[in-house]
Every structure is written in C-alpha cells, then in structure tokens.
Write a structure and sequence with these properties.
Radius of gyration: 38 Å
Order of helices and strands: HEEEHEEEHEEHEEH
Strand content: 25-35%
Helix content: 10-25%
Distance between the termini: 127 Å
Largest sheet: 6 strands, antiparallel
Structural class: alpha+beta
Length: about 280
C-alpha cells in the first residue's frame, strides 16, 4: 500500500475519534446536568364513578404524577374510602377533595345540595331524558303546557308558559314508577336545583294534564326575561308570541303637531305671508 495513502487514513481516523470524543463529552455533560423530575403517586378513580356513589377500595387506584401533586389530592386510600361522590368521576382521574362530600355525610344526592337549596325531581319524556343534554351542571328553562283552569278549549286551547328560568340540572336518570294499572315502568327523572319557592312552583306545575318541557340554555346566559306565554289559538291565528289576555302594555300617545301662526307682511306694494311654529311665534 502507498505509504502516503496510509498516513492520510491514519490521520483521518484520529481526527474522527477526537471529534467523537468531544461530542460524547458535550452530550454527557448536558445529560448529567438535567436533574430527574420527582414523581408522586396519588389516589385516582379505577373506573367511571357516578354522582352519589360511596367510594370503596375496589373503585380506587393510584397514578404517578410528575412534579408536585395538585391541591386537594389524596395519597392514602383510607382518606377517601366511605366518602360520597358529588360530581361524576372518570377512569384515571385524580380524586380531589372538592369532588367528594364531607366525611360522615354518606352518599346519594343529598350531600351535593347547597345550603338553602332543594333538589326537586321532574318527570320528563323519553325524548328529553334520553337525548343526553340534561346532564349535571347544565342550565335549563322550565316550560309547562296544558289547559289553564277555567279556560275554554275553543277560545284559547292549550297554553305554554315559562315558569322558571336559568335552573341548574343536579342529576338525571331513570326511576321506577307504577302506571295506572299498577305495573312498574321506567320513567325519566331530572333533579333540578331550586329554592323552596321554586320547588312549590314545580310541584304545582307537575299536576294532571300538564306537560313539563326542559329547554337548554347557554350556561353563560344568566339573564331572565318576562315571557308572556303562547296559546294554541294564537299559533293557528298567526299571532305567535302574542301576550295572554290580561297582560298590560304601555299605550303609545301620539304627540300633537305644533301650532302654526301666519303673519302677513306689507312692505310698500309688496305683500308676503310668513308661517311660524309656536316657539318662534312667541
């Protein structure tokens, strides 16, 4: 082999080795400078947990979280076993103290009701109950429809009226009730979070021959408005949105036209007439 070629190959090998060594030292220094991130194990839901469930050992698991754990998490299973869930939990979600009822209050719906409020059950049809929009936390308006007491079916017919607005849905599910023949049947039930006065209104609204409809609204829309109601007769007469009989509105009073005065001006042989409104005539 040519001596000159051998020398070039040896020098290239030495230069490549030197470069590889420098790169190795630089990468190793940077990797060594990076500190390992501390992890913590916290209690999480082993499966989907519904509102009102009392936690036991089988419904719990642990997950590893990098860095400091979120505020309100638990590290010991005994701290959460026996407490009721006041908000739906999902598999793998860390269990926070704010999602659980106070120790000793048990499960069910009662711990989720704020002080001074009531949970009022409303029976709805399958369309409303199964459609899925009446989930906990949603905001709805309550509309009733039926024939008012003393109303004539020919003149007015069925009337729809908004009785409550911006009401929070506390829970939704299926209940077992008996029909007219005494047979058990599943019924869609929605629990609404209301104050005592609103609970009385809902109780009266759920009477015989009255249908309750829940209307979904934007959670950010908290404004309530006066809704006059609509009768079946108004729909067929093209008067949709016409207020019910007895609703009073301010009368529009037309402003009278200003009084005009005519002044005759004689200037030599020239005669002119000028017209002035009341302020200018004065």
């Amino acid at each position: 082999m040519n001596r000159r070629l051998l020398t070039i190959l040896v020098l290239a090998f030495l230069i490549a080795a030197a470069c590889a060594f420098v790169v190795y030292r630089l990468v190793g220094t940077r990797l060594g400078a990076a500190k390992p991130v501390a992890t913590n194990r916290v209690i999480a839901a082993a499966n989907d947990i519904k509102l009102g469930t009392i936690l036991d050992k089988s419904s719990l698991t642990t997950i590893e979280i990098a860095g400091a754990p979120p505020k309100g998490t638990f590290v010991k299973p005994e701290d959460v076993i026996g407490r009721g869930v006041i908000s739906d939990l999902y598999q793998g979600e860390p269990i926070l103290d704010g999602r659980l009822a106070a120790p000793g209050t048990g499960g069910g719906l009662a711990p989720a009701i704020p002080l001074g409020m009531r949970a009022c059950a409303v029976r709805v049809d399958d369309v409303v109950g199964v459609s899925g929009f009446v989930t906990p936390g949603m905001r709805v308006d309550v509309i009733i429809s039926g024939i008012p007491p003393g109303a004539t079916t020919v003149a007015q017919g069925t009337v729809a009226k908004t009785v409550l607005q911006n009401i929070q849905v506390l829970s939704a599910g299926t209940d077992i009730q008996k029909d007219a023949e005494g047979k058990a049947k599943p019924v869609q039930v929605v629990n609404l979070l209301v104050n005592p006065e609103q609970a009385e209104t809902l109780t009266l609204a759920g009477g015989q021959n009255v249908k309750i409809q829940l209307v979904l609204r934007n959670p950010l829309d908290t404004k309530t408005e006066e809704v006059p109601g609509t009768a079946m007769g108004n729909i067929f007469n093209g008067k949709v949105g016409t207020p019910e009989k007895g609703t009073h509105h301010a009368k529009v009073v037309s402003k009278p036209a200003p009084k005009v005065f005519t002044v005759e001006v004689i200037n030599g042989a020239t005669e002119t007439k000028e017209k002035f409104s009341t302020p200018e005539a004065k």
